[in-house]
Design brief:
Strand order of the largest sheet: 1-2-10-7-8-9
Number of strands: 10
Shape: globular
Length: 345
């Protein structure tokens, strides 16, 4: 079993202090999987970084192990976050692991059931706010300023330090960075972290960030007051890491683009049915993006021949969407002939 993420990359995690405990669930070391069907469609080598293989089922665990370890080392007794789901699940799990209290504020009715179940089972106090994520984040930032609790959203610098390790892993496995990285963009912390990680390894792939059309403030250049998309994990109208994300895309000579919910769901289904990879809808935005927009060349670079698509969360996070997209279950009497008719019709 690989050592915990902090132990593998401690010398590169500049925000940890000597003596900080390691609060870990053995996160990281997620698979990098070839995608032959998508590769053929795109005309380039496509690889999938399966971040849903992290302990709570999303990439958030990379940042949370560092953020909660630092919070524990600093003497904090509780952590708090606003969340569309994955941060809530991860914060609750790592708080439980650390023996700390956890609290999360989520938009009412806008969180996938699998993520809500995780946060509740890990013992976090969950508040369903009658507002969107952006308003929830404003509230938790105020709470963290007034009370002795650690804010563990991606505005926390320790989160970005942990999340950049995904770039380290890809470079270590491939021997260098891929020519391009495709990644979903919501609150924009992850694309910021990947670019930092590549930079620290002396690499500079093209970054292609993809937002949902109904929640695409970085594409339109202005906040979205009421973001809407089936991809709940990126249903964010005013990203906290807006400037850093746009700097990363500009510096890499990449681009930010939008994909429709239909394109996201088509990619979501394609990944599961053709590649055997079940991710949550927001994750599929990275694949939907390269299918819809291709892999364009930069001013001084040819079109990339290899790309890693980041799949940020596991499909079991959002079973309702999966059941709505999947074929219906077929009822049958306990009769061999009837079963055979269904199977071989």
């Amino acid at each position: 079993m690989p050592p915990p993420l902090i132990e593998r990359y401690r010398e590169r995690l500049g925000t940890l202090e000597e003596g900080d405990p390691v609060v870990t669930l053995n996160e990281g070391s997620t698979p990098l999987v070839e995608a032959p069907v998508i590769s053929e469609r795109v005309g380039a080598r496509v690889m999938l970084k399966l971040e849903g293989a992290n302990p709570t089922g999303s990439f958030k665990d990379r940042g949370m192990t560092v953020a909660v370890s630092r919070a524990k080392g600093a003497g904090a007794e509780a952590v708090i976050c606003a969340s569309t789901g994955n941060t809530a699940a991860s914060a609750a799990a790592y708080a439980a692991r650390a023996g700390m209290r956890g609290a999360v504020i989520v938009p009412e009715g806008k969180i996938a059931i699998g993520k809500l179940a995780q946060a509740l089972m890990h013992g976090a106090r969950v508040i369903a706010l009658r507002a969107n994520f952006d308003m929830a984040l404003e509230l938790v930032r105020e709470i963290a300023q007034k009370h002795p609790v650690e804010l563990v959203n991606s505005v926390n610098p320790h989160r970005i330090e942990g999340q950049k390790t995904a770039a380290f892993e890809v470079c270590d496995e491939l021997g260098s960075a891929p020519e391009a990285l495709a990644i979903p963009v919501g609150n924009a912390g992850n694309i910021t972290a990947w670019w930092r990680g590549f930079g620290e390894y002396g690499e500079a792939p093209l970054l292609f960030g993809f937002q949902a059309e109904g929640a695409a403030p970085l594409v339109s250049g202005r906040p979205v007051a009421d973001p809407e998309t089936v991809a709940s994990a990126i249903r964010i109208g005013n990203p906290a890491r807006w400037e850093e994300a746009m700097s990363a895309v500009t510096d890499s000579r990449g681009r930010i683009a939008a994909v429709s919910d239909e394109q996201i769901l088509d990619a979501y289904h394609l990944l599961a049915s053709a590649e055997g990879v079940f991710c949550e809808p927001a994750s599929a935005a990275s694949v939907a993006g390269i299918l819809a927009h291709g892999l364009p060349a930069a001013e001084d670079r040819e079109a990339p021949e290899s790309v890693v698509c980041v799949l940020t969360g596991h499909g079991l996070k959002d079973p309702d969407t999966a059941l709505g997209k999947a074929p219906a279950v077929i009822g049958c009497d306990p009769d061999l002939a009837a079963v055979e008719e269904i199977l071989f019709d």
